[in-house]
Amino acid sequence: MSPLNITRRETPTGPVLRVAGELDYAQAAALREQVDGLVLSADQCLVIDLSGLEFCDSTGITALLAARQHAQAAGAGIVLAGVPANTLRVLAIVGLDQVFTIRPD
Q: What is the pLDDT of residues 65-85, one digit of tens each?
């Protein structure tokens, strides 16, 4: 099991959270806490960089949906970037590839 590592950096268009390791039941709360602590404005876009993600279970997907809800409540956008193929496949199967904006990098 790889521990979840979340790093944050600010950009002119909004915060970028880089998520690495395993986003699962035991660790999804850490992402939710990071996102809940973000103050977003309507002109910003939250980017969640998943390029370092090794595993994501349904609890992790729920945490991503909560991040989307947090951004939408602030009127901000949200983008998932660098989504690994296995996670992208799961998102597509459940139709969330139509809900999230997904970028390769």
A: 999 999 999 999 999 999 999
